Amino acid sequence: MKYCPNCSANLILRTPEGDNRARYCCDSCNTIFYQNPKNVVGTIPVYEDKILLCKRAIEPRKGKWTLPAGFMENGESSLEGAIRETKEEAGAEVTIKSDSLYTLFNLPTINQVYIFFRAELSNLEFFPGIESEEVLLYKERDIPWSEIAFPVVKTTIENYFEDRRTGSFPVRMFTVNHHRDRTVSTVLISASDVQSTDRNRITEKATSS
Amino acid sequence: MKYCPNCSANLILRTPEGDNRARYCCDSCNTIFYQNPKNVVGTIPVYEDKILLCKRAIEPRKGKWTLPAGFMENGESSLEGAIRETKEEAGAEVTIKSDSLYTLFNLPTINQVYIFFRAELSNLEFFPGIESEEVLLYKERDIPWSEIAFPVVKTTIENYFEDRRTGSFPVRMFTVNHHRDRTVSTVLISASDVQSTDRNRITEKATSS
């Protein structure tokens, strides 16, 4: 940011009084411009023992496989946004149950929060949206693990198939860190069904970026 | 927004090609400015059978009681943000367990998402930060229910004391709607321990704004 969006004066990056972080400040119209993380919302669209994946038609990770997800918009809930993105990217209608909230990821290095919901395909009508090259139903054994676009997607799919075996789908929150050597590590920071023996167990997985 | 923060040209509010919503667009430097919901993160700081509440020293809702919470910042996780806000607003150090994620609220009418974590006070040293007039530990029977600042805070405290009786703390997601007649309604849209008989049960509570 260089210019004030309200009055076009030059912005100054400084710490406002009573604050402890540098912000873009306009001393002409006395406005402070805060910058905050954005939410990305999506679903795991399930049909019988299969999940729906989209092959990305755009960068980043063009040609890799992902779950339908995108930026949450003003005026919608995270769940509404996830359903909208599923329609936009996979051409799919989904139904939602009352325990749909599933995984949350903090990505502090890129200022994003991902939220995934479990969803069921309403029918077998789906088609690639403008950001997808291809949309396919995958059984667990056929998942293209080495071709998954993002660590948040891989972790969510792994958890889904693991939880499916027990029939219990706890809500899990992770922090994903992108390191300087281009590796990415995922740390579980909260889970809704944590047993007392597991309370201090922390899972960390490093994958190449 | 009137002026481009990059080049100070006049912005135009229009739907970009391939999009379906109006955005602030700069035709001078070809930039689209997206506006997205912001996250507010906070804790329920617990000590024995009591919770810590802050009396607001600032608007909105000056003089009303709230849980320590504030806008999530770039570069931090939601949990780190919640711990930071607890220090800033209540002067309190907290410890977190592995099942700390507790309530999530979508507030689509004001473009916010609230996330609360359960936390335990590390000690009895706490003091009002710059945005608080007073910080007090409250037993359930003493909670000033009619003086709670926000519906998200009231719902979180109600759920906490209810769950405390069973020892089970499911993660719950709500949507909060602000209506034209100044009432506010809170709808449960997802909970991690939903029983099959409860799957279609929806809770809606209307409170005055």
What structural keywords apply?
homodimer, 209 residues, mainly beta, Nucleoside Triphosphate Pyrophosphohydrolase, 2 domains, 3-stranded antiparallel β-sheet, 2 helices, globular
What does this protein look like?
The structure is a homodimer of 209-residue chains. Chain A is mostly beta strands and 209 residues long. Chain A has two domains: 1-35, Ubiquitin Ligase Nedd4, Chain: W (Single Sheet); 38-169, Nucleoside Triphosphate Pyrophosphohydrolase. The first copy, chain A, is built from two helices and 14 strands, in the order βββββββαββββαβββ. Chain A has helices spanning 78-90, 151-166, and strands spanning 12-14, 23-26, 31-33, 38-47, 50-56, 65-66, 69-71, 94-95, 101-107, 112-121, 132-139, 172-178, 183-191, 204-208. In chain A, the strands form two sheets. In chain A, strands 4, 5, 6, 7, 8, 9, 10, 11, 12, 13 and 14 form an eleven-stranded mixed sheet that branches. A three-stranded antiparallel sheet of chain A has the order 1-2-3, with no helix packed on it. The longest helix of chain A is centred in the C-terminal third of the chain and has 16 residues, at 151-166. The relative contact order of chain A is 0.16. Residues 196-202 of chain A have low confidence and may be disordered. At the A-B interface, helix 1, strand 9 and strand 13 of A face helix 1, strand 9 and strand 13 of B.
Please specify the SSE layout and strand pairing:
Two copies of one chain form a homodimer.
Chain A: E1 12-14, E2 23-26, E3 31-33, E4 38-47, E5 50-56, E6 65-66, E7 69-71, H1 78-90, E8 94-95, E9 101-107, E10 112-121, E11 132-139, H2 151-166, E12 172-178, E13 183-191, E14 204-208
Parallel strand pairs in A: 4-10, 9-12
Antiparallel strand pairs in A: 1-2, 2-3, 4-5, 4-7, 5-6, 5-11, 8-10, 9-10, 12-13, 13-14
